[in-house]
Amino acid sequence: MDNTTNCYRDLFLADTPMADLRAPAEYLKGAFPHTINLPLMDDEERHLVGTCYKQQGQEAAIALGHRLVSGAKRDERIHAWQRFARQHPNGMLYCFRGGLRSRIAQQWLAESGVDYPRVEGGYKALRGFLVETNEAAAAECSFILVGGLTGSGKTELLYRLDHAIDLEGHAHHRGSSFGKHATPQPAQIDFENRLAIDFLKKRAQGFDEFVLEEESRTVGRCFVPPSLHAGMQNYPRVWLEDTLENRINRILRDYVIDLAAEFTARDGEEAGFEAFAEQLRQSLLKIVKRLGHERYERLAAIMDDALVRQQRDGDLDLHREWISALLLEYYDPMYAYQRNTKADRTVFSGSHEEVVEYLLARAQRRRG
Predict the structure, then answer these.
(1) Percent composition of the chain: helix, strand, coil (DSSP 3-state, to 5)
(2) 95 classed as catalytic
(3) Given pLDDT bands bounded at 50, 70 and 90, which one contains residue 2?
(4) pLDDT of 326-340, one tens digit each?
(5) What fold is seen in the domain 4-128?
(6) Residue in 52, 95, 141, 222 annotated catalytic
(7) Which of 33, 91, 120, 238 has the least C-beta neighbours within 10 A?
(8) Would you state the torsion angle of the CA atoms of residues 11, 17, 20, 25, taken in this order, to the nearest 10 degrees?
(9) What does the domain layout of the chain look like in residue ranges?
(10) How confident is residue 5, by pLDDT bands cut at 50, 70 and 90?
């Protein structure tokens, strides 16, 4: 009996483990959380079968696939699926369309004594469901934005709210020229999938208004879904206030201390520090045209001296100089302009505690 399911919402709400049977190249273009790639065919095998299909038709392609994945290779893949099934008795199989590959894997598992379900419609249906989930959230829900000067702690504030959506977290990027982490961002599809599942889970909890940080069209290389970004041009917003000292300390922690730790954890002490220092320099270089050459040269010199001192004896104080100058001379005037042009949409401003209190009270009123 063909054991299938098309209850996509329940799969994502439950964080259902799923074995993705697509080839590795397909998986890398986009997948879902809580999945593992256990392909029926590797990239080369899939290419050969695809070429055969175009030239000789489906029957010949299927026959070639069975020849390519046979003997010890077939046994190895069945064993991998068996291990997954044992580890995840509540899991699922899927391929691209929920068709031939998942049926073959399901059949081979059944012949080995393992009855295991597959996702009807496969990756394409699951992906379509999540695209629709993002569109539905943008169309049906209310949103309020959190704005504030650079370093005011907007992301920290989101962590304190159950109805916040952290776009930067899903994009694995802090959203500025200095926002890259030591590890890469997700693929665009993965970013959108994570965002949709977040919406799905929070809507299931009864939330119908969400708090977002003000973002541009992209967070690093990840594009905010167009419908959501279009809405950001009109959503009401709150403005987060904080002192210059706190903002400098926060930037120092995020973009110097924590970032250096990320690179040294990845590459080791010496190579990691060099990679961190190079990324910091490149981040400043990205905005050279907007800074102006003279200002860029001045800040770059301070940054270089700060990096030398940091590496030599761990002294971080000199970093405060370029951070302070960058905030006061570049970011603050830019954000002040944006604040003034959007003043009619600002419904509240205050400190961290005051803004959190306002947003929690607003959410409570909406939920009755």
Answers:
(1) 60, 10, 25
(2) yes
(3) very low
(4) 999 999 998 877 777
(5) Oxidized Rhodanese; domain 1 (3.40.250)
(6) 95
(7) 33
(8) 110
(9) 4-128, 141-368
(10) low
